Amino acid sequence: MKTTQRRLTILVVAGALLGPALAAEDIVGTAPPAPRVEHTPPHRDGFVWAPGYWDWNGHFFRWESGTWIPEHRRAHWVADRWEQEGNQWRHVRGHWEE
């Protein structure tokens, strides 16, 4: 498993277990680049596609490719996104919602 996929899987599982206690926010003064076009692979039973997103590493944006994550019954995946707040941008991490 690629490091990025492993990292995302660990974050998703930890987030599901710990919920808001694990929520960390990135707030930056630079707009993220436009999302890259990714071609979603064919459906996989028992998994949900988490699309790629721009991650902030403290110095610059780095693309995190999309990956399959284990599905959660009665919940849907809300993908990572950046929201503008005045002159700043806040990263809303991907998470499960019922």
Q: Topology, pairings included?
A:
Layout: H1 3-18, E1 26-28, E2 47-50, E3 53-56, E4 61-64, E5 67-70, E6 76-78, E7 81-85, E8 88-92, E9 95-97
Describe what is shown at a glance:
The chain contains 1 helix and 9 strands, in the order αβββββββββ. The strands form 4 sheets. Strands 1-8-7 form a 3-stranded antiparallel β-sheet, with no helix packed on it. Strands 2-5 form a two-stranded antiparallel ribbon. Strands 3-4 form a two-stranded antiparallel sheet.
Which radius of gyration do the C-alpha atoms yield? 14 Å
Helix content: 10-25%
- Summing up helix and strand content along with how strands pair, one would put the structural category as alpha+beta
- Taken together, the total number of domains comes to 1
What is the topology, as strand order, of the major beta sheet?
Answer: 1-8-7
Total number of helices: 1
Tell me the overall shape. Answer: globular
Distance separating the two termini: 28 Å
Give the SSE order as H and E letters: HEEEEEEEEE
β-sheet strand percentage: 35-45%
- The count of DSSP E runs of length 2 or more, i.e. the number of strands, is 9
Low-confidence sequence ranges: 17-22
Main sheet specs? 3 strands, antiparallel
Query: What do the pLDDT scores average to?
Result: 84
Explain how this protein is built.
The chain is an alpha+beta fold and 98 residues long. The chain has one domain (3-38, 46-97). Helices cover 16% and strands 36% of the residues. The protein has one helix and nine strands; from the N terminus they run αβββββββββ. It has one helix at residues 3-18; strands spanning 26-28, 47-50, 53-56, 61-64, 67-70, 76-78, 81-85, 88-92, 95-97. It has a three-stranded antiparallel β-sheet with strand order 1-8-7, with no helix packed on it. A two-stranded antiparallel sheet has the order 2-5. It has a two-stranded antiparallel ribbon with strand order 3-4. A hairpin with a 2-residue loop joins β7 and β8. The termini are far apart. 10% of the residues are buried.
